[in-house]
Design brief:
Elements (H helix, E strand, L loop, with lengths): L4 E6 L8 E5 L18 H8 L5 H10 L6 E5 L9 H10 L3 E6 L4 H9 L5 E5 L8 H4 L5 H12 L4 E8 L6 H10 L6 E5 L17 H11 L6 E4 L1
Length: 233
């Protein structure tokens, strides 16, 4: 498993739980607003791949922290690109940790296999834009039916999960939020994450965040279709 970075202790992933976050390099998207181009762009990844964290060192850390940590969150840039993700999850579960996976839902078969083997306790999936228009955000050619299938895998699962959208002024609007919410009607949780400016993959990307009032309006729209809608600033 390629591990590009670790956040050893986090209270953000789950309220009242202490988790460690594992970051994997590489992503199949090229979103303009990505804040981590060094882990995404091939020309920059070369340096990252020279300094990967040894998997053995990570599991030694988990062994020593069994009574302090409860969750391991596997984040990307896109973890499902890692060919040994399933084995990695098995090893974590063997130590009695709970596993969260963050994904842009590029591979429904991997997600389904992990769920079928009870290797996941929580999944967080990005829905970056309205269905059938993902390429507008990702700047890559996508087989969108695959992404639709992954949404349906989660909607029909028994696992705890969330869908989430990073909302950006001049890209997302009330109609877009409504179209997304319609498609994931009756999902367990939907998070609206406010965009924060910073170092972006596209250096010319300078769009803005939404105000709290605008976010509340989005939440009101999404609540027509989804019971649990949350705002992350």
């Amino acid at each position: 498993m390629q591990i590009s970075a670790i956040n050893k202790f986090s209270l953000i992933e789950f309220p009242w739980e202490i988790s460690t976050i594992v970051f994997t390099p590489g992503c199949n998207f090229r979103c303009d607003y990505c804040h981590n181009s060094e882990f995404v762009l091939p020309e920059k990844l070369k340096n990252v791949l020279k300094n990967l964290i040894m998997e053995k060192a990570f599991f030694n850390f988990l062994e020593k922290r069994k009574w302090n940590l409860t969750w391991v969150s596997i984040c990307g840039w896109e973890p499902t690109m890692q060919p040994d993700l399933k084995d990695f999850c098995r090893k974590i579960k063997s130590l009695w940790y709970k596993v969260k996976l963050d994904t842009n839902w590029r591979d429904p078969l991997i997600i389904k296999e992990l769920l079928d083997e009870d290797l996941l306790d929580y999944v967080a999936m990005d829905i970056k834009y309205e269905v059938w228009n993902f390429s507008y955000i990702s700047w890559t050619k996508l087989e969108e039916n695959i992404y639709i299938e992954t949404i349906n895998v989660l909607l029909n699962s028994n696992i705890d999960y969330e869908f989430r959208t990073t909302v950006i002024k001049w890209i997302h609007d009330e109609k877009i939020i409504e179209n997304i919410s319609k498609y994931i009607s009756f999902s367990k949780n939907y998070y609206l994450q406010n965009y924060k400016s910073g170092n972006t993959l596209n250096p010319n990307f300078n769009w803005e965040s939404f105000s709290q009032n605008e976010l509340e309006k989005f939440k009101e729209i999404a609540n027509k279709y989804i019971k649990n809608v949350w705002i992350r600033n």
